[in-house]
Amino acid sequence: MLNIRKKFSYYIITRRQIKIAIALLLSAVTLTVGSQFVFAGTDRLLPIYCVETDKKRIAISFDAAWGNDDTHTLIDILKKYDVPATFFVVGAWVDKYPESVRELSNAGHQIQNHSNTHPYLTELSKTQICDEIKSCNEKIKAITGVEPTLIRPPYGDYDNNVITTVESLNMKTIQWSVDSLDWKENATADSIYNRVVSKVQNGSIILCHNDAEHTPEALPRILENLKKDGYEFVLLSDLIYKDNYEIKHDGTQCKLK
Q1: d(CA 60, CA 86)
Q2: Which of 27, 151, 197, 249 is such that its CA lies 20 to 30 A from the CA of 209?
Q3: First to last CA, the chain
Q4: What is the average pLDDT value for the chain, to the nearest integer?
Q5: So what's the pLDDT on residue 43?
Q6: What is the predicted pLDDT for the residue at 88?
């Protein structure tokens, strides 16, 4: 009888060990969601923050949601330094400033989606998110003739529902790896410049705003110095990988080998 109890006890321990081993094995499995890869150990999906590349290629982006005083000035500066940029615009901004959207597009810059009304997308249903994205896409396409393929969620706010909804529309969710913080009240041209140039590396996505007070003053120095350092500015759609990629835990998009 004693021997039977010992055997039974040993059997219980062994099953537990097997369960632990299976759990550890499953945590290492990679699951595919659309064209993204996430670790099974965590079900959190990530947008693209930056791109892993050996080339000194970077993208500068501007969010346009409210004012419009500096847009033309930014276009002139970008033209002077022969730099293409990606502008994430809100549909309501497109309604107010259609001529600026047309001017940006005609200047060779890329117009992408920043939602229609600038809400927190994480507070919306899948249907509401789709409505926000599609409405903005339609407004942009009506002016530029090109439908956006990228979206930057307002406030940088996202969750799995946001990302999977974006993926269902054959679009990609974009964040940033270098924040200029040009929107802050205490921002200066020097603080914007120093923050950007000190953080840029291969594959960086830079975030600026079209109507921040000191961005037009800081931008020429940023572009000039980064180009001197050998960086090539490209449109965001040309920086990211379209397919066959994975996104690491820090948001870095990497090409699968």
Answers
A1: 7
A2: 249
A3: 59
A4: 88
A5: 85
A6: 99
Mean pLDDT across 105-129: 98
Are the beta carbons of 70 and 209 closer than 8 angstroms? Answer: no
Tokens 């021997």 -> residue = 3
- List the catalytic residue out of 114, 118, 209, 214: 209
Global pTM? 0.84
CATH fold, domain 50-241, is: TIM Barrel (3.20.20)
Place of tokens 């409505």: 131
The whole-angstrom separation of Cα 8 and Cα 94 is 72
Q: What distance in Å separates the CA atoms of residue 227 and residue 83, rounded to the nearest whole number?
A: 10
In degrees, rounded to 5, the angle at the alpha carbon of residue 243 between the alpha carbons of residues 241 and 248 is 65
**63 is an active site residue:** yes
- The two most distant CA atoms of the chain are separated, in Å, by 90
Q: Are strands 245-247 and 252-255 parallel, antiparallel or unpaired?
A: antiparallel
Judged by DSSP in three states, 58 sits in strand
Residue pLDDT, tens place only, 197-220: 999 999 999 999 999 999 999 999
If pLDDT is split at 50, 70 and 90, which confidence band does 42 have? low
Whether residue 118 lies in the annotated active site: no
Please determine, for residue 27, whether its predicted confidence score (pLDDT) is greater than 50. Answer: no
Domain spans, the chain: 50-241
| Measured distance CA(145)–CA(105) in Å, rounded | 10
Q: Cα–Cα distance between 174 and 195 in angstroms, integer?
A: 20
Which of 103, 11, 32 has the alpha carbon at shortest distance from 64?
103
Q: What is the pLDDT of residues 77-96, one digit of tens each?
A: 999 999 999 999 999 999 99
Active-site residue among 63, 70, 182, 211?
A: 63
